[in-house]
Amino acid sequence: MSVSSNLLSANTSEIETDTSGWTAGANTTLAQSTRFFTGSKSLLLTRTTSAGAASATTATRVAVTAGTVYTAYAYAALIVAAAGRTLTVQVDWWAASTGGTAISPSATAMATLANSTAWNTPPPILIATAPAGAAYASVTVTVAGMSTSEAVAVDSIALGPANRIPGNLLDYNTQGCEVSGAGWAVAGNCSQSRASSTSFEGWYSLSTTSIAAGDMINRVATFYPATAGTEYLGYLWVNAPVTGSVLLELRWYDSGGGFVSVSQATWTVTASTWTRVSVIGSTPAGASQVRLSFQPAATAAAQTWLTDQAALMVAPNEAGNALGYGPYGTEVGTSAWSVTGGALARSTTAALEGVASLALTCTGGVDAVLTPAAAIPVTAGTAYVYRPAVRPPTDSASYTVRLDWLDGAGSVIRQTTAAWSFGTGASSSWSYSYTADVAPTGAVAVRPYLTRSSPSAGEVWLVDRQFIGAGGLTAQVTSLGTQYGARITVTGLTTGARTTWGLWRTSPDGTQTPVRGYGGDLTGTTITGDIAVADDFESPLGTPVTYYLKTWTAGTDWISYSTDSVTLPYPDELRVVIKDPSLPAGTRLFTVTTSPSWTRAARQGEYTVRRRARPVILTDVRASRKGSLTLTTETLEERDALWWLLDSGHTLMLQWPAGWGEDDVYVQVGDVEEGRPSSYAGQADREWTLALTEVDRPVGALIGSASRTWQTILSGYATWADVLAHYTSWFGVLTGVEGT
Questions:
Q1: So what's the pLDDT on residue 739?
Q2: How many CB atoms lie within 10 A of CB 254?
Q3: Residues 217, 247: contact at Cβ < 8 Å?
Q4: 167-190 pLDDT tens trace
């Protein structure tokens, strides 16, 4: 038994500096004593006049929270052995830090001190709930029955929140039986009491003693509410008198206390060793209450089984995990998993959650493959991630994860694979891997495989906290339609708590080109949320490409994802797409009259050498292409759209129909000629001649969006004041990036 944190200061608790943390009670003087329970000093209380009690109260009140359960205790030792002395620890609750009247007191039962100079153990223990209105508390220690001038030492005084197991539905006393065994009720072939000789935590454990050989039954006395369909975990620590069998149960009841059903787990425990035994179960239909039941198998009468730190709670699985708590944490067994090329066991050597992990011992000579016993249902089009925590046998070890996406007949539609490797220190720590993909069309289930290839015989891999569910780092690509680009929706950027992300387009020959973003190329963007959307207006049309997504923190700490191949359709086989890569709003289709005849000028100088027939020619790389493109526009709107593209002087991108034998090209447009094919002034047709020079892909950020118009502003904001409240510049209005 202990407090989760002692609210009393170190000097008040241990009196190592002075007695300033305490105020003497009536007929009491205070001093430091060289006697001690811990440290080197203690608080000496001396009764000054006549027989009676000596007491001391903390000089400063400590802050508390009404409704919170607190624990208090203190150790005491007589300076001279005497009989009949009793120790009480009392907590007074207050509304203010000073002054006022105590709301109410909470006190331990009187503990009789031994007729010796030994420290009293266990100490008197208080478990109390701060009452309504309580904001502060003080502690008073009182030793009664003392003679005049008699002294007693007090040490290691504590007041703090009870050290309750997080999430435990059981009250603190039922958890550890530090005050009484009232939270438990025998149900067959046993009696119960408390033992202070051995405990897992604190000073006391629950002692269950058999009346005869056979099953003993001891249960939590209270019925606890249970939510339908929710998974619960029950456990306790057992110290058995013999190596034997223990049955642990979650017993389910209806609202009237009628028995509905039971969830069970059978354990074999070793004699004289503390072992945690657990049981997991989901609330069945018709049940609304649950009790934890402990049922050891006694081999003889008068056998005493000790239990401590009992818990009943909603199973601490991760939200969204398609795996139940059993396969997630391996706290009960290994039946939810299957293996080839190895053997599975539940290991308590190391655990990331709870007290156990899944141990895969490799046979050697063949791949060791771990997979769930059953496939996991999925919804097509949703991203899923498989994330095991792994502790390898060596720092340099590696493994592979494969996701098999299955149709309704159990056939594999697609496989997703990822290789994972470890670095320095991996064998002494836990490492997560994240393998994610989007469930393909037709998929109804996924089965993950964790494979250790070519292991040595006897390799032991520990696996814990296995998660399968929606999420993970993925990207999905959709067409922007008449905007002639691709929209890449990225999810799971916060997976693994990495800080930076990047996005690249991969062409069929493997060339990777960064996707342009509003801050420049997306090659090192700070992660600010789990989801991001990138529009790629430079994606080729009619050519298959994939997108490569990567997140990283530093060095080799990174994960990545590649999308399926996507081909954006080319809109018109007779027209060219002209884009401004930085201003996609101007993208248009234009009818080609004559495609360019390209010229690549030589870069060379010819030098005549005296008395030589042949000249010396010095050369450099050949110049990029130059040519003239002739276009036809049929309307004044088309004419104005072309001038809108040309007026900026920006580098433009030309995308050609696939059958023309022309690659997408970035060009700088020189002189432009706008001609009239007809002498009739009312004719809107124009014929254009554009002088082109091929250039490299331009640098710079994306500005605006092909779909963002003034209508976007009108639809999104009621007044111009609302626009001004969101944007500080015209750039913000153009791009839609708030705060710019």
A1: 63
A2: 12
A3: no
A4: 999 999 999 999 999 999 999 999
